[in-house]
Amino acid sequence: MQSLISEFLENYTSGDISIAHTVMVLGISCVLACYIYVVYRLITKKTFYSKSFNIALAVIAVVTAAIILAVQSSIVISLGMVGALSIVRFRTAVKEPMDLCFLFWSIAVGICCGARVMEVAIILSAILTVLVVILDRLPIGRAPMILIMNLKDSKKEPEMINTVKKYSKYYKVKSRNVSSEKCNLIVEVRVKEEYEMVQELSGLEGITNVSLVSHDGEVTF
Fold it and tell me: What architecture (CATH level 2) is domain 145-214?
């Protein structure tokens, strides 16, 4: 039994990983990590761009490649790495689905480079870039807008709704707040002639304020 374990350890150990090979693997990982950094910066459309998260994407690819190289070198290191990583707890929530996709992309590139299949990492990066660009530019639908109206008299609501209906292909009252005969309406609308609708609503009697804002909610068809 002991001889079998010794033979397994000798066969697993690959101490012939040279410095040149390590530099080559980490160098290719750095190039692909920088590529992911650029693609994420160009693709993301968030109002608050997180540069620190983008840098983390690039660093994760290189660190993952280094971990895979270390794991390949010795069974002892691999077991120690598993034990070390098992106690790490990541509590930062990823709120954007696109951020999660780029995170897995970065990890996959690091694993492929560390496993010495750099061509898979390159092909994967090319395919994902084309896929993300095409799907991002594909016109699927238009996000609705939020119309906020403050009325002096709640009895004027049907007149306001009829005006909204005239300009909108889709509308839905999301909130109605009535107090002391006053009424505050929040309506989800899908409209092309935004300026004309707001001007006509603001000119009606009994309305004190009209606001039309866009949001990044669910897309309606």
Answer: 2-Layer Sandwich (3.30)
